[in-house]
Design goal:
This protein has helices at 4-11, 15-24, 41-55, 60-70, 75-106, 114-117, 128-137, 139-149, 153-172, 180-196, 202-214, 216-222, 229-245; strands spanning 2-3, 30-31, 37-39. The chain is mostly helical. It folds into two domains: 2-52, Multidrug-efflux Transporter Regulator, Chain: A, Domain 2, CATH 1.10.1660; 75-245, Orthogonal Bundle (Globin-like). Keywords: Activator, Coiled coil, DNA-binding, Transcription, Transcription regulation. It comes from Streptococcus panodentis. Residues 68-102 form a coiled coil.
């Protein structure tokens, strides 16, 4: 058994944070007769799970719900976290490669294509997107998306990048959102979401489109293809959804 200061030193978590976890019912160790918190090995294993989820961007409320669903069995959490971290590693490897190529291009050591500049960037490249996706669409939808993308991360990245790049080019050419080529890109985007993420309805697709322009992180990411691309994409999707609903 470990006193709270020992548990804090072992885990790198502050005593104040452990008190907070106990208050939330997230990690409640045994109490001695004099009121001291005593942490068992099982408590520390649970703390490890909590810290992994925090690193992956999960809010404490959702971590509590996930832990409650599985009861005392920690293995499903470990497997889920391993899968998420492995996917993140693959995305980071792509981004590191992209950054190295860009640095080499800036030094004049090589040329870099437009496609290579954006390798590794997708509309869900940030971990915090996970929280927003769960909040909007539910954990089951997000889990389905993760499962569909497993082992296909590069294909997913390329598919989304291709669409956003095409839309950015159309924006530069001054094409209206309702232009046929833009509506074709919207249809491809919806098909790509359905293939690699979840069975997206037109209503949810409309919400996603609005999020591209309204959410600062989505907007910043998509606008890397060209200033205004996020707003333009949102407009293209809005027209597409309206036409499909007619």
């Amino acid at each position: 058994m470990y006193y709270i200061k020992e548990a804090a030193q072992l885990s790198g978590v502050s005593v104040k944070t452990l008190h907070h976890y106990d208050k939330l019912g997230l990690l409640s160790p045994l109490k001695s007769e004099n009121g001291y918190r005593l942490y068992s090995e099982a408590d520390l294993e649970r703390l490890q799970i909590i810290l992994f989820y925090k690193y992956l961007g999960f809010p404490l409320k959702e971590i509590a719900e996930l832990l409650a669903q599985e009861g005392q069995d920690l293995l499903p959490h470990l497997l889920r976290q391993l899968q998420s971290l492995e996917q993140e590693k693959e995305r980071l490897d792509i981004l590191i490669s992209t950054l190295r190529k860009t640095i080499q291009a800036q030094k004049g050591e090589r040329k870099i294509t437009t496609e290579e500049k954006f390798a590794g960037f997708t509309y869900e490249a940030h971990r915090s997107y996970h929280d927003q996706a769960v909040e909007k669409y539910g954990q089951a939808v997000v889990d389905e998306a993760i499962g569909r993308q497993a082992g296909q991360e590069e294909q997913v990245t390329a598919a989304f990048n291709r669409i956003f790049r095409n839309l950015a080019n159309n924006l530069q050419q001054g094409l209206p959102a309702a232009a046929e080529t833009n509506q074709e890109q919207a249809a491809q985007l919806l098909q790509t979401i359905r293939r690699y993420s979840f069975d997206c309805s037109l209503e949810i697709f409309a919400q996603i489109g609005r999020g591209y322009a309204a959410n600062p992180e989505f907007k910043e990411n998509i606008d890397q293809f060209g200033a205004g691309t996020a707003r333009y994409t949102a407009d293209v999707i809005a027209v597409y959804v309206q036409k499909q609903g007619e």
